[in-house]
Amino acid sequence: MAEKPASLSSFLFATSLLLTLISASLASPTPSSLYGTLLHCLSHSTNSSTLANNNIVFDRTNASFPTLLQNYIRNARWNTSTTTKPLIIITPLQESQVQAAVICAKSIGIQIRIRSGGHDYEGLSYVSKQPFIVLDMPNLRQITVDISKEVATVQAGATLGELYYNIWKNNKVHGFPAGLCTTIGVGGHISGGGYGSMLRKYGLSVDNVIEAKIVDLKGRILDRKSMGEDLFWAIRGGGGASFGVILSYTVKLVSILETVTVFNVERSLEENAIDLAVEWQQVAPTIDDRFFISLHFSPSGSDENKTVKASVTALFLGGADEAVSILRKEFPILGIGKENCTEMSWIEAMIWNPDDPKIGVKPEEILLSRHLNSAVFLKRKSDYVQVPISKEGLEGISKKIMAGTVVLGFNPYGGKMAEIPADATAFPHRAGNLFKIQYTVNWDDPSPAAAQKFVNEARSLYSYMTPFVSKNPRSAFLNYRDIDIGINTFGKDSYEQGKVYGAKYFNVNFERLVKIKTAVDPDNFFRNEQSIPILPSKS
Ligand SMILES: Cc1cc2nc3c(=O)[nH]c(=O)nc-3n(C[C@H](O)[C@H](O)[C@H](O)COP(=O)(O)OP(=O)(O)OC[C@H]3O[C@@H](n4cnc5c(N)ncnc54)[C@H](O)[C@@H]3O)c2cc1C
Ligand SMILES: *[C@@H]1O[C@H](CO)[C@@H](O)[C@H](O)[C@H]1NC(C)=O
Ligand SMILES: *[C@@H]1O[C@H](CO)[C@@H](O)[C@H](O)[C@H]1NC(C)=O
Ligand SMILES: *[C@@H]1O[C@H](CO)[C@@H](O)[C@H](O)[C@H]1NC(C)=O
Ligand SMILES: *[C@@H]1O[C@H](CO)[C@@H](O)[C@H](O)[C@H]1NC(C)=O
Ligand SMILES: *[C@@H]1O[C@H](CO)[C@@H](O)[C@H](O)[C@H]1NC(C)=O
Hints:
Pfam families: BBE (PF08031), FAD_binding_4 (PF01565). This is FAD-binding PCMH-type domain-containing protein. Belongs to the oxygen-dependent FAD-linked oxidoreductase family. Residues 82-256 form the FAD-binding PCMH-type domain. The protein is α+β, with helices and mostly antiparallel strands and 539 residues long. It folds into four domains: 6-136, 2-Layer Sandwich (Uridine Diphospho-n-acetylenolpyruvylglucosamine Reductase, domain 2), CATH 3.30.43; 143-255, 2-Layer Sandwich (Uridine Diphospho-n-acetylenolpyruvylglucosamine Reductase, domain 3), CATH 3.30.465; 260-344 and 376-468, 3-Layer(aba) Sandwich (Vanillyl-alcohol Oxidase, Chain A, domain 3); 486-538, no CATH class. It is 33% helix and 19% strand. The protein has helices at residues 8-25, 31-45, 49-52, 65-71, 95-108, 160-170, 186-191, 199-202, 224-234, 273-283, 320-330, 346-351, 363-367, 391-402, 416-419, 448-464, 494-506, 510-520, and strands at residues 57-59, 88-90, 111-115, 132-136, 143-146, 151-155, 174-175, 209-215, 221-222, 245-252, 254-255, 260-268, 291-301, 306-316, 341-344, 377-385, 407-412, 435-443. The protein has a seven-stranded antiparallel β-sheet with strand order 15-12-14-13-17-18-16. A five-stranded antiparallel β-sheet has the order 5-6-10-8-9. A four-stranded mixed β-sheet has the order 1-2-4-3, sandwiched between helices. It starts with 7 loop residues before the first helix and ends in a 19-residue tail after the last helix.
C-alpha cells in the first residue's frame, strides 16, 4: 500500500490496476487496496492537485482513525468493539473534495455514510453493516451572516451553537429557530426538520430555509435553482442522506426582542401533577404563540417513596410581566408569579438549563464548545398526540413512569405549526397535532444486558402508550431516529419495507419523497436503514 509513494508513476500504475481489478470483479475491496484506490481516484477527480494529498483520507491503520471516529459519536452504544467501523474516514476541507468523494465512492462501488454532527440516535451516520466510508463534514463549518438581508448561510458541518453565536455576535435582535442542544450538526438537524423552543412562533428550521447547496449523485454542486423545487422540498424534512450530500443551507433569520423570559416549575404527583398535565394539554398548544411550554414526566424520589415529577419549562418571547399576566389568566393551576421567572437575552435562553445554571460561564464558551468524544448510552423514541389524554389515562401513564427510568417529554405544537400545510415541506406533522412525545432514557453501564434492559423499558412504555397516540400511521419524528419502527434490507420488497417507516416519518409526503428519490438517485447509492426507497419498478 503506497501511502506516501516514492515513485508516483509506479503508484499510479498500481492503483489504476487495482481499480480495474475491483471494477472487473465487483468484489468488495479490501481495506488496504481501497485506501490506495480511493486516494488515486480522489487525486484525479479533484480539480486542484494541491487538494489531492491534503491529508483527508484516513484508513483504519492510521493512528488518528479512532479519535476521528469517536469525536462525533454521540451515543455510546455505537462505540463498542463489536460495532462495525468504516473502512475509511474522509474529512473534506473544501466542497470540491466532497464532490470528489462522491464520484470516487460511487465509481468504486462502496457505500458512504454522511456525518455532520453525529447526533443520529441510531448512529446511522457512522455505522453500517455493509462495507462503508464515513464522509465526515465537521471541517465544513463556515457561517456567514448578512444582517441587512436577515439571512445566514451555514455549512453542514457547523453546529447549532456556532450558528447561534454567529448571529448573536452580529446583532442582538435576530435569532434562528432550531434545536436546544448546541453540539447538533446543521446537516442532519435541518434536513430532518429541526425543532426548538421558537417553533410555535416561527415554525421549524426548515420553514425558514431559503436556499441550499447539495452534491448530487454525479458529483455536481446544485443550488436551489439547479436542483429544482422538488429536491429542495425533499431536503427540508425528508432527511439529507437519501438524496446527496448537503453542503450548506441559507436561512432566513427571525426577529427577537432583546429580552425574553424563561421559567421552570416542578410538581410531584402529591402536588397535583396530573391536574396540571390535564390543563397543560388544553393550554400549551393553544396559548399565545410566543410561548413554548414543555412538560416532562420523570420518575423521582427514593426507592421507598417513589413519585413522578412533572416539570414545566417555558420560553416566552417577551418580558416577565406580560408572561405572568397571560399565564395567570390562561394557566391558573400553574400558580406562577414574576418571582418564578427570569428575564434574559435570547442567546442566554438558548443555553439556559434549570438543572445546571452555568453561573459565570460566558455564552460563547458553551456555544462554541464541540464537546468532542463525549457520549452517554441512550435510546429515544417519539410519538404524536392528537386527542387530549384523559386524567385516568395520565394516571396510568404516571404509574408506568414511576416504576421505570424512562422520561416522557411533551413538546407542544399549535401556533405557526398548525398554520403551515402538511405538504409545504417534507416534514408532515402540522395541524391536528397537539404535542410530540419524546421518550428519553440514558444510562452509563456499558454492558449489553443494561442496554437490553433500558431499550426494552422504552419499548414497553411505547407499547403502553398506543391508545393515547396517533394511529394509521403511528407518526414519528425523523430527527428522533428510531430503528424499531422499521428498517430496510434493500431486497425485492425494499419499497414495501420503506413504506413501513416512511409512512410514520412522512405521512402524506411519503409518495412524493419516493418519486423525488427515484428521479435523483435511481441506483439508490445514497441509502441507509431508513432512507427513502425507490419506486418498485426501478428496484
Ligand atoms: C443531545 C441531543 C439533543 C437533540 N435535540 C434536538 C432538538 O432540540 N430538536 C431537534 O429537532 N432534534 C434534536 N435532536 C436530534 C437531532 O436533530 C438529529 O439527531 C439530527 O439528525 C442530528 O444532526 P447531526 O448532523 O448532528 O447528526 P448526524 O448523525 O451527523 O446525521 C443525522 C442524519 O443526517 C444525515 N446527514 C448528516 N449530515 C448530512 C449532510 N451534510 N448531507 C446529507 N445527509 C446528512 C446522516 O447521514 C444521518 O442520516 C437532538 C439530538 C441529540 C443527540
Ligand atoms: C494518517 O492519515 C493522514 C491523512 O491522510 C496522513 O497525513 C498521515 O500521514 C497518516 N498517518 C499515518 C501514520 O499513516
Ligand atoms: C472541475 O472543474 C470543471 C470545470 O471548471 C467542472 O466542470 C467540474 O465539475 C469540476 N469537477 C470537480 C470534481 O470539481
Ligand atoms: C414522598 O415524597 C413526596 C414527594 O417528594 C413527599 O411529598 C412526601 O412527603 C414523601 N412521603 C414520605 C412518607 O416520605
Ligand atoms: C414561585 O416562587 C416562590 C418563591 O420562591 C415559591 O414559593 C413558589 O413555589 C414558586 N412557584 C412555582 C409555581 O414554582
Ligand atoms: C469510546 O470508547 C473509548 C474506549 O474504547 C473511549 O476512550 C471513548 O471516550 C469513547 N467515546 C465515546 C464518544 O463514547
